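Case 281 in the screening queue. Each case pairs one protein sequence with one candidate compound; here the compound is zinc ion. For every case the pipeline is the same: read the inputs, emit a complex structure as tokens, and attach any notable structural observations.

Predict complex for case 281.
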Amino acid sequence: ALVTSEKMLLDAQRGGYAVGAFNVENMEMVKAVLAAAEELNAPVMLQTTPSTVKYGSLETFAAIVTAEAKKASVPVALHLDHGSSFELAVRAIKEGYTSIMIDGSHETFENNIEVSRKVVEVAKPNGIPVEAELGKVGGKEDDLEAEADTNTDPMEAKEFVERTGITSLAVAIGTAHGFYSGTPVLDKERLSEIRKVVSIPLVLHGASGLSDEDVKDCVKRGICKVNFATELRVAYTDGIKELLKEKPDTFDPKNFGKAGMEKVKELVKNRILVCGSDNKV
Ligand code: 13P
Ligand code: ZN
Ligand code: NA
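Case 281 output:
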């Protein structure tokens, strides 16, 4: 069933695991993620970035996910990932998204608070939870390239959460979007420090390229939602590439879709196990 992410994340916090949040780009990826979640009996979040929304439209993704979630035996939330403006966040709520991220992390501290608070003001009466980000996650994020990486300051995080009323907080502790050029260096102590002063669920971005151990350790230290994007895109495309290599005459899009879905489903099952969200329904 389609639900909001609020109870899902609080359950994860209480249970000491994280909900996997998977970026989807088309119907096939939606189906593949849900198939994996159903097989492992895991609550799950599907999310789309602004560039994905631009490609497929909010209404279209809301319709696809609503239809697929209705048939699912596990709780499913549809989340706007890295919401880039107040207007987009409001439109997403209107179109049926059940979870919103407003990303003001590129703004000043005060402007970030201002835009996040404004989104909460609209979302809260509608029962929609809001994730915001403080500090900067590295790498290429959707269409935006983060400048110098700035990790989240624990005391700023506490103030930020109090002044915005958000329901989950994305933290910067050294992770980056996309794959890593070297070995990722995570400031896990900082994560534990943030957890000490912030009681709402914490979110880890940039999980593609992290070791299973790093993800598990971060979950132990208070991460309740882990975002996976790049590696799903790669898995989907690898499935199609393999098919084309084996059978270059393939022309039915359904066959490409099936090949991509299989790879995504396998990957997502693996990530759900790493997050520890299997059998949590
Ligand atoms: P990756 O692309 O590194 O998996 O990051 C995902 C993410 O943070 C989406 O918001
Ligand atoms: Zn992200
Ligand atoms: Na990454």
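Case 281 observations:
- The chain has a mean pLDDT of 96.
- The first helix runs from residue 6 to 15.
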